[in-house]
Every structure is written in C-alpha cells, then in structure tokens.
Design brief:
Layout: H1 9-25, H2 31-37, H3 44-56, E1 60-61, E2 70-71, H4 73-83, H5 91-102, H6 107-122, E3 125-129, E4 138-145, E5 150-157, E6 162-168, H7 175-189, H8 194-205, H9 215-224, E7 238-240, H10 244-247, H11 255-266, H12 268-276, E8 283-287, E9 299-308, E10 311-320, H13 325-343
Antiparallel strand pairs: 1-2, 3-7, 3-10, 4-5, 5-6, 8-9, 9-10
C-alpha cells in the first residue's frame, strides 16, 4: 500500500492542517492551534487523538513530551504529491522576474539574475545550473585566414556560443586547401555534440588525411587533437543567489544550523551533483532524507529544467523542508519557462 492510502479521510485532513500550520508558524503544531487556524469542524480533543495516530504511522513527531507535532519528510512527500494546490505567481512577482531577467546581458547573467530574484521572491536560496556546453551541438566550423601563416578556427555552436582558436601553420597558407579542410570538418563533425566530437575526433578524420587536397593543414588540426574542443567553461557550474535570505529562517537561528548552511553553500561540488540528478524534464521536489547526500538531509530542493537547444539546465531553490510548497512550486515553474523563452 503506497503512502497516504492507509490514512482515513480525517487523518488526511488533520495532517494537511498540521503541515500548513507548521509551515506558517514555524512552531510545533498543537491541537488547539490547528483547530483555530483550520476549518476542520472537529474538536481539539479529536484533533489531538488523530495527531497521535499520525505520529504512530510516521507522519508526525514531537520534539518533547509537551510540544505540538512537526511533520516528517514522509508527511511532506504526501503533501507535495497529493495535497498541495499549486499557486501561480502573482502579477507583481511575474513582473519583477520579467523586468530583471529581460535586462540580462548574457546567458550567464540571465541565470545569475534568475537565481538571485527567485531566492528573494521565495525567501529561499536560489540555485541554477547552466547547460554544459559539451552537450551542445556544433553547428559549423569556419576557417578564417588572418595572415599568411595563421588561421582562425571558429566553432559556431547551436546555442549561439562561438569559440575561436588560432592555429599557426608551418608554411604559406593555401586558400584552396583551407576551403577543402573546412568542408571536411563540417561534413564529418557538423551536427554532433561537443562531447561526441571529443570522443571520436581522430576516427572521424583519420582517412581524410589521405586526400592530397587537404595537405598539411588537416594533419596540424589532427595533431591538436580533441583539445580543440576541450572548452574549460563547458563543464556545468552552479550559480547561487544570496544565502542571506535563508538566515532569517527560524531553522538557521542556531550557530550549528548556520554553520551547516554555510558549509553547504561553500561545497559547490555537492550541489552540482545534487542538481545534476535533476536533469530530467519538468519539476522535481526532493525532501530531506530523500537526498543521497547526508549534508542535504535537512533541506528541500525544488527545481525545474529548461532547455537551451538540445542541452538542459536547472533552476530552482534550496531551503528547509518547512517551506510553502504551493507558492514555491509555481514560482520555480514560471521562472523555468521564462528562462527558456529568453535564452533561446
């Protein structure tokens, strides 16, 4: 039996009320508070009894005997999957996002702004991962003579990115040879992702060197090897908004909790791996102990993907498991769609 199916209708209603009370107050939810804040139509005594049943089933816990209850990761998972009503962002939030993102000067600036603004609007830590250029397709290669013995190799990527590499020749430049080598490169490498070119570069060009029309130029390019396509910035980088918005959250009021947050923001590799797992179409919500990395056990990641050509990036927020999922999911999804429209 899957999560939630073993709960009665009353248990589901009380659980939803407890979760929303705790999200709103950041205090363990007592039966009287739940009764006052919700429209359950049952007495605090009945609510307290139902909360006890929910604790037995693993959906609630209480920090000490006299305290109210706090939702577990299991409760949040059921809430996200079956209870929460996604709220689309309001007009003011949409306008804020559109104004800030439309002013971006580059794709990197766009993502940095998106992470920052999304963090401010949600009061969580905005996170973004740019698409790895290695997954982006090579549109064409241009060989541009710049002197009698120097050549500019221009990689035009389908994302709109251009990379140029100077090649020094051993002798005088032959324009017919340059044109033929350019034709061979485009015929054999055009339309392939950079990572595929790097893996098969020599094999794809080896037999072309037998042609007298390509002369020494293709040999020189082959000698450079797949290093011509080894773009340092091609690897995914994690962009973070300001962590100061999280400092105001009650979860980070203690020195130990604050230290765990700062450690997390400094370990970009950990976040990169966690976000790389989200390279799947659409929205992903990973809650607390569902993370493979123990350092993320106290956090929720809400992310969505966006596309840049055939490559895929990630935008979202990181925060404590106590977050207003209804509003945050709507904002994250809207931001992903906005980025995708602008980045194309």
């Amino acid at each position: 039996m899957s999560d939630g199916e073993s709960l009665t209708e009353r248990e589901r209603r009380v659980l939803e009320a407890v979760i929303e009370t705790y999200i709103a107050t950041a205090e363990p939810a007592g039966s009287h508070t739940v009764a006052r804040r919700s429209a359950l139509g049952i007495s605090p005594t009945a609510i307290r009894s139902t909360m006890g049943e929910l604790e037995t089933k693993g959906y609630l816990f209480h920090p000490h005997a006299s305290a109210g209850r706090i939702p577990t990761d299991r409760a949040y998972r059921l809430y996200v999957d079956a209870m929460v009503q996604r709220t689309p962002p309001g007009a003011e939030a949409r306008e804020h996002l559109e104004v800030e993102l439309s002013a971006s000067l580059s794709s990197d600036d766009l993502l940095a702004r998106a992470a920052q603004v999304l963090g401010i609007l949600t009061h969580e830590l905005g996170v973004a991962v740019a698409p790895a250029l290695e997954a982006i397709v090579l549109d064409r290669v241009d060989l541009v003579p710049v002197s009698t013995d120097r050549l500019l190799l221009v990689l035009n990527l389908r994302s709109g990115t251009v990379r140029s590499i100077f090649i020094r020749l051993r002798g005088i430049l032959n324009r017919l040879e340059v044109d033929e080598v350019q034709r061979v490169l485009n015929e054999r490498l055009g339309g392939l992702a950079l990572r595929e070119i790097r893996a098969t570069f020599v094999d794809r060009l080896r037999d072309a060197t037998a042609s007298p029309d390509v002369g020494e130029l293709l040999d020189i390019i082959l000698a450079e090897g797949d290093g011509l396509f080894d773009i340092p910035e091609a690897r995914e980088s994690v962009l973070l908004g300001s962590a100061s918005v999280l400092i105001e959250q009650p979860e980070f009021s203690s020195t130990e909790q604050m230290r765990s947050l700062l450690t997390l923001t400094e370990r970009s590799g950990l976040l990169r791996e966690a976000l790389a797992e989200r390279k799947r179409d659409g929205l992903t919500v990973t809650i607390g102990g569902e993370h493979l990395e123990p350092g993320l056990a106290g956090f929720t990641l809400v992310t969505t993907t966006y596309r840049r050509g055939r490559a895929m990036g990630v935008i979202g927020v990181l925060g404590p498991t106590r977050m207003p999922y209804d509003k945050i999911v709507g904002l994250v999804e809207h931001t992903g769609r906005l980025i995708e429209g602008l980045i194309q």
